[in-house]
UniProtKB/TrEMBL annotation:
<protein>
    <submittedName>
        <fullName>Chorismate mutase</fullName>
    </submittedName>
</protein>
<dbReference type="InterPro" id="IPR036979">
    <property type="entry name" value="CM_dom_sf"/>
</dbReference>
<comment type="similarity">
    <text>Belongs to the prephenate/arogenate dehydrogenase family.</text>
</comment>
<dbReference type="GO" id="GO:0004106">
    <property type="term" value="F:chorismate mutase activity"/>
</dbReference>
<dbReference type="InterPro" id="IPR008927">
    <property type="entry name" value="6-PGluconate_DH-like_C_sf"/>
</dbReference>
<dbReference type="InterPro" id="IPR011277">
    <property type="entry name" value="CM_T"/>
</dbReference>
<feature type="domain" description="Chorismate mutase">
    <location>
        <begin position="2"/>
        <end position="93"/>
    </location>
</feature>
<dbReference type="Pfam" id="PF01817">
    <property type="entry name" value="CM_2"/>
</dbReference>
<dbReference type="GO" id="GO:0008977">
    <property type="term" value="F:prephenate dehydrogenase (NAD+) activity"/>
</dbReference>
<dbReference type="InterPro" id="IPR002701">
    <property type="entry name" value="CM_II_prokaryot"/>
</dbReference>
<dbReference type="InterPro" id="IPR036263">
    <property type="entry name" value="Chorismate_II_sf"/>
</dbReference>
<dbReference type="GO" id="GO:0006571">
    <property type="term" value="P:tyrosine biosynthetic process"/>
</dbReference>
<dbReference type="InterPro" id="IPR036291">
    <property type="entry name" value="NAD(P)-bd_dom_sf"/>
</dbReference>
<dbReference type="Pfam" id="PF02153">
    <property type="entry name" value="PDH_N"/>
</dbReference>
<dbReference type="GO" id="GO:0046417">
    <property type="term" value="P:chorismate metabolic process"/>
</dbReference>
<dbReference type="InterPro" id="IPR046825">
    <property type="entry name" value="PDH_C"/>
</dbReference>
<dbReference type="InterPro" id="IPR008244">
    <property type="entry name" value="Chor_mut/prephenate_DH_T"/>
</dbReference>
Length: 375
């Protein structure tokens, strides 16, 4: 029987040649993306066009099916290409939605989120200044003529910092980026007689672009005066979602405070059990590995930030206490070996999720496949 080395080498050489052609095609694609970004910037079009994306994905899936390729595989490749495209387009700049606006002052602009907004506003043609804690003795100078003041400081300092602001021009838009909204909005309305807007970016400062990212906004005073900023973020590719301040804070209790606390408690339990992490990873299924990844990533970040998020309000503490009680109810079903009660509760929860349960199953299957390939 012939040795496989020679035919394998020949086939691998052909694969290498195809890979090189793929790189050439991807390079050309990004060149075209740059041209698209220039056109969008010139005509004030958002970098994220959901209808175009859906139609393109549907066509390519159909073409893949006709060629005997997996449509899911082709969609995965294209979505990764599009993510890179959004990042690339961002660097082409954006149409300035408020060309007559005075300087934008970011209080805390040296922080990660403040710096992210500073970069995006600069790419959009605005003059950006920063005001840091060592600059308060010249705050009047930095804030002179400001068209917008954006407060991006730690949660526990936000209200105090807003209260320290000197009198702003009456036309100046005052905005905060805090993950709670009731207290900061009240503080801004008390400190400034002009337009006020509350923002909460639902993402971290490490994102490649604003494409598909959600920014929650809470109107404060004179909403027409802040519409340019919402339009500017839409051009960046963001999805802006209006919400009332109290509704926002209650939702954040579930989405952020409770979730982060649960992750913290699970990490505390894992560390206390003290099993070798390498062993857990070696024995893990894709979904458990993904869970470990989501738990572990929390502890690679700033503990002060998460302490502030979890302990931001008495409402958060009350929510966590209710979670603790329900955890005890669930534990009682297991302790009592109440299999029928467990199944009944399981089905009731499934009914609450409704059609989202099947949708989440499909989405998680795709995520798990990706996680398994990166092991």
């Amino acid at each position: 029987m012939d040795a496989p080395d020679a035919p394998l080498a020949a086939l691998r050489e052909q694969i290498d040649e195809v890979d090189s052609q793929i790189l050439d095609a991807l390079t050309r694609r990004l060149e075209l993306v740059s041209q698209v970004g220039e056109v969008k910037g010139r005509y004030g079009l958002p970098i994220y066009a959901p209808d175009r994306e859906r139609a393109m994905i549907a066509r390519r899936r159909e073409e893949a099916q006709g060629r005997g390729l997996s449509p899911d595989f082709i969609e995965d490749v294209l979505r990764r290409c599009m993510r890179e495209s959004y990042t690339h387009e961002k660097n082409m700049g954006f149409t300035q939605q408020a060309p007559d606006l005075g300087p934008v002052v970011i209080v805390g602009g040296a922080g990660q989120m403040g710096a992210l907004f500073g970069r995006m506003l600069t790419l959009s043609g605005y003059q950006v200044r920063t005001l840091e804690k060592e600059d308060w003795d010249r705050a009047d100078e930095v804030l002179d003529g400001a068209g917008m003041v954006l407060v991006s400081v730690p949660i526990q300092q936000t209200v105090e910092v807003i209260g320290r602001l000197p009198a702003l021009p009456p036309y100046c838009l005052l905005v905060d980026l805090t993950s709670t909204k009731v207290a900061p909005l009240e503080a801004m309305l008390a400190a400034h007689q002009g337009p006020v807007l509350g923002l909460h970016p639902m993402f971290g400062p490490g994102v490649d672009s604003f494409a598909k990212q959600v920014v929650a906004y809470v109107p404060g005073r004179d909403p027409d005066a802040s519409e340019w900023l919402l339009d500017q973020m839409r051009l960046w590719g963001a999805r802006v979602h209006e919400v009332e301040a109290h509704d926002h804070d209650h939702a954040m209790g579930l989405i952020q405070a409770l979730r982060h606390f649960s992750t913290f408690a699970y990490g505390l339990h894992l560390a206390s059990e003290d099993r070798p992490l390498d062993e857990l990873l070696a024995l893990s299924s894709p979904i458990y590995r993904l869970e470990l990844i989501m738990v572990g990533r929390l502890f690679a970040q700033d503990p002060e930030l998460y302490a502030d998020i979890i302990m931001a309000s008495a409402d958060n503490v009350a929510l966590i206490e209710r979670y603790h009680q329900r955890f005890g109810q669930a534990l009682a079903l297991v302790e009592q070996q109440d299999r029928a009660g467990f199944i009944r509760a399981f089905r009731e929860i499934g009914e609450w999720f409704g059609p989202y349960a099947d949708r989440f199953l499909t989405e998680s299957t795709s995520l798990l496949a990706h996680a398994d390939t990166t092991r």
